[in-house]
Amino acid sequence: MMYAALSLLILGSLGTKLIGLASGAVTSHNPGENWVQPSGATLDGCPTSCGNLSFNYPFGIGSRCSRGPDFDLTCNDTTVDSPRLFFRDGITEVIDNIDVLTDGNYYGPHTLIRASFFRTIPMKSSASVYHMPFKPPGSYFTIDSSTILNITGCDLDVYLVDDDKLRTKWVCRIVCPDQGITEMVAMHNCNGFGCCRVELVTPDADGFHFKFFRLHRKSNTGASSKETSRLWDRISITTDGGFWVSWRIRDQPTCVAAMRNRSTYACVSKHTKCRDSSCSKDVKCVDGGMPSRDGYECNCINGYPGNPYIPDGCSNDKGYNPFPSRTNCTSQCGNIIVQFPFGLEDGCFAREEFHLNCTNMTSSAVLKMSDSQVIGMNVTEGTIKLTEREAVYAIFGGGRNLFVGFELSVKWAAANLSGLEAQQNRSGYACVSMNSKCVAVNTADNYIGYRCICSEGFQGNPYIQSGCQDVDECREPNICKGICHNTEGSFNCTSCPRKTEYDAGKMRCTTTKQQTLILGIIIGLSCGFSILFLSFTTLFLVRRQKTYVKKQIRKKCFRKNQGLLLEMLMSSDGTTENDKSRIFLLEELEKATNNFDPTCVIGRGGHGIVYKGILSDQRVVAIKKAMVIEQCEISQFINEVAILTQINHRNIVKLFGCCLETEVPLLVYDYVSSGSLSQVLHADSSDGFSLSWGDYLRIALETARALSYLHSSASISIFHRDVKSSNILLDENYTAKVSDFGASRQVPIDQTHIFTNVQGTFGYLDPEYFHTRQLNGKSDVYSYGVVLVELLLRMKPIFTSESGTTQNLSNYFLQKLKDGKITSIVSSQVLEEATEEEIRSVASLAEACLRLHGEERPTMKQVEMEMQTLRTKRESSCQASPRNEGRTQPGSLTRRSSKAARQSSAMIFGERINLWSGDSQQCYSLEQEFMSSATIPR
User: Fold this and answer.
1) Annotation marks residue 731 as catalytic
2) Is pTM beyond 0.90 here?
3) Choosing from 144, 155, 276, 722, which is the catalytic residue?
4) What are the binding residues for ATP?
């Protein structure tokens, strides 16, 4: 169907559009060399669509149908799905309608085209460097703003090249620890494993240039083609969400220059204005502003919408016919009533834009306007509801702005005229019914046109003769407190006759009835006492029933949560009666937490809530309550209880017992008052509180001791599987307490690893364990290494860089360490308090823990020994320093300086790392350390 002069506009702001990149080599061409001014004859028969996409002149398919080579499009109809539309470079794909129609608004989106880009670079074994330039699809096009690119491949360093300044900038690295990783998995996360996401923030009209360097790793050699994915064979670059390309007429630099040669002037329609492309919204160059040198655009003037690039493309609205030319028009499609000015058949609608299509007339019929399905319409309110949001942005035919809406609710206008203009031509005036009037249809920015409504007191269809009928207001309930009298377009009220009163229930005047006062009192008291007795009886029975049901539910939960098994485990764990864990009753925990009051919540996580409570023996405890009720969660709960009952270590949180009488089992721990290491590390610097570097080294040593105990000193090896700073709690003395053993696994003595489902926290998770599902002690070592990096950098394991991209802390740390820039990323507090030797030692230990292959990492016992050595060296250096003269204020820090530079080296698991000389170190005396700790909040 042809839509003459119709456009749909969104109510409110459309928001800022994301602009992207296009690429491909395109040569510059001046369309004026072979261009012929368009006319109805030259454009006759030219295609205006490709699949479900439409476009208008100056764009076209074929040299006769477009303004020049840069505006020449290609429709590829050989694809399996719908045909695809490309620019002349054959690489940049058009993914939305190309709309050049204007409505007199200078600043509309008619010079923006939404496009996408996909490029694949085959990788050869003999080549190590690859190039991929991005270019606009023609000399008349520019890249308008920022975009996001997804780059997939394996073992690549990606650089952005500045061709003008001959400089390169590293943007990301792509690695593939698992040779079988698929493109779909890599694209899903796009976090450096098989894929990285690059955001190009600064627009560049000349495009961009990427350079790829292949990383050669020994682990990749010898892999068979069946084991490796296609990521090893090619580099793929795709736009994330598409991008926007801006176009303008560039055969002349300004409007003034273009008007001098009318044979090539693009604004050929009457009622048009030319605008220099660089003119802002506040400065219109055609009205005396400074001219640009970057081409020009054509716009229809207000009131004459259409295509300014073809003769007579901008025209006034004269297309409304208020009287249908036929009778007995079909007025229903499925369950939707179609009223005039809309219609389904020729002669039944007021203008071509209001012509709707109905698949059939049955109850399952589909009503469509263009390519959008109509699901409802209201002529009185002037609205149409569509199923496709894209339909709101569509422009049909000559670009009449007759529709305006937001999301799926669309308002429409009868014509692009004011009410006064429309009434001057009575033969085309839409409000033909008596008792009707016209109202304006506006957007937030400009006027669209007019529509019709019935006058106050009338209702119906104002677009047909006698369509507005009188409303009988007296049918509305309680409109009068007496007798209602309907009039033409209004109503009036009179009071009820004598000895009658208005009955709101019956909505009329009724005779007044006298009731005996005593009889009313007796009936009221009898009913009241009866209701009161029944209420107390019902309340007593309900409470008794609830108490019985609660007892049965608690017994059922105890059996379902394997209470008998846990009682056996707790009674046979070999501990003394005082240290033995026990099973708590639900009433005791409810009393300890004031019935689990929300004010007692001290922590929330992905798996549950932690409450603070006080037991009857005045012990302060932390009660863990899981949120998910699944059998796998019950199994993890039993696993955690079984593990903690076998552990007795000062740096592991103590389990007092558990409760099994709820649907969700509860764990009762010793309350650790000072929060977690994560909270202290990442606290707001404005609080004025921070632990010293020596305290952090001690906490790291205590954590290593706890994990080493779990791996090698417990009665059976235990792998924690979720080591992270938020699971390292701190007591009132800031002593480390490792917690949360819900994901831990026991390992028989004769085994070094087990196969299990992957669990853990992203950022701390061992990549080797993630890909192989083989859990061993080295997985905890990797997570501990991430904690060490947190201590040095004071950054979270997954953080957002200054450019807005999400980065992995371990990858960021290893890259900076490799580049020799470790001091540039270490926290300022660490640089101030720690010696350079300590920084290098901790960084080297973290690098050893973060190695990709588990066999290259140290054991937790070796890590504990190395941390103990580092701690001993610091204490020795502090004791060897001369004591300060005079008295020191409590909590003050004593700074000691070593005049002689020291040159030393640290041996870490067979690898020697050279350390540079340090000029200063900071130490506490025993008295100062005691006084300083006294000021720490408890």
Assistant:
1) no
2) no
3) 722
4) 625
